Amino acid sequence: MIAAKQAKRIRFNPIRGRKSQNFMRRENYLRKELYERIASDPAIFDFIQRGSLDGLWYWDVENPEQEWMNSRFWELLGYDPREKKHLASEWQDLIHPDDLKKSLENFQKHLDDPNHPYDQIVRYRHKSGRTIWVRCRGIAIRDENGKPIRMLGAHNDLTEMKELEAQLRQMADTDQMTDMPNRRAFNTHFEWAFKNQKRTAEPLSLAIIDIDHFKHINDIYGHQIGDKTLLAVSSAIRNSCRDNDFAARWGGEEFIVLLHSTDQAPAIMIAERIKASIAEIDTVPEKLTASIGVTTITQPAMDTGMQLLDLMVAEADRALYFAKSSGRDRVVHAAPLQAA
Ligand SMILES: Nc1nc2c(ncn2[C@@H]2O[C@H](COP(=O)(O)OP(=O)(O)OP(=O)(O)O)[C@@H](O)[C@H]2O)c(=O)[nH]1
C-alpha cells in the first residue's frame, strides 16, 4: 500500500530531480538495512560469500603466519577444510612458485601504497595434481595511522575459462585432418626459433615436403583414400623427425619441418629419411614419392622472424621446384642447388 502511494507520488512529480532523489533515498535505506543485517547476522554474510565467491581469506598482517581461509577455498582444491589449521604456509605450499613470488611482491606494494591493486591470476595445485586457476584480490585494512593490520581477500575460480581458452588455442593451432600443427602454429614456433638462433648462433634448416602427383592419387583412388594417405604422410614425417624438430602441415599436400641446430648435411639426411618413410606408405597400391626442398642458414641478417621465414621458404621452394623439374622423388638442398 505504501509502495503504491510512493509510486503514485513519483509518477506525478513533474520535477525529474525529485524522482531521482526519492530513488536515492530508497536505495540508501535498503543498502543501510542490508549492511546492518550483514553486521548483525553471520548467516547473511555466509549466504553472500557462498553465492559470489570461491574463496575468502582474512590475513593477520602483524602476525603473518595466521590466516583464515574459508571452507569453500579448500574444497575447490580438493581438501577437507577440517584438516586445515588456518596458516599462511598451507596455501603457500600449494600455489605455483612463480605466482607466489608475484603475489608476495604485489602484497608488499599494496601495503606500501593503497593505490597499488592486489589483484592477480594465480595457479594452485589441486589435491589430484590438476591446475586450478584463481583470480585473487585483496585489500589491506589499516589502523587510524594508516598502518596495515589485516588483509581481506577474495578468490574466484577461473579454471573452466582457462581450460576452454587453452582448448580454443590448441584448435586454432592444429590441422583438423592430420592433427598436426598448422601454418599459424608453425609461424609462432618460428618466431621463437628465430630468437633462439640469434642467441645460440646455431645453424637452422628448413625442409618443404611435397607429395608427387597427388592429384593423380585423388583422381584414381578417390578423395577418402587421398585423405588417408595424407594422414599416413603426417605420421611418416613425425616418426622420421627428432623430438625437437617441428613439423607442420603447410597446406594441401605440402608439409614443412624446422630442424633446430642442424647444418646442411644432417638436414639432407633427415629429409632422405622422411622420403624413405613416405615410400613405405601402403594406402595406395603404388609407390608414394615425395620431392623435398631443403635450406640452411647459419648467420641470418634479418631483423624479424617473419623476414627470415619468408627467405627460408623462398629458398626451400626454389630447391623443391628444382626437385620437381628434375624428375621428382628426390631431396634437393638450396645451396648449392643440386640433387642430394
Ligand atoms: N584428398 C585430399 N586432397 C588434397 C587435400 N589438399 C590438397 N589436395 C589435393 O592435392 C592435389 C595437389 O595437386 P597439384 O598441386 O597439382 O600437385 P600434384 O598432383 O601433387 O603434382 P606435383 O606436385 O607436381 O607432383 C590437388 O588435387 C588437391 O586437391 C586434402 O586435404 N585431401
From TrEMBL:
Residues 118-170 form the PAC domain. PROSITE patterns: GGDEF (PS50887), PAC (PS50113). SMART domains: GGDEF, PAC, PAS. Gene3D superfamilies: 3.30.70.270, PAS domain (3.30.450.20). Transmembrane segments: none annotated. Coiled coil: none annotated. Its cofactor is Mg(2+). This is diguanylate cyclase. It comes from Wenzhouxiangella limi.
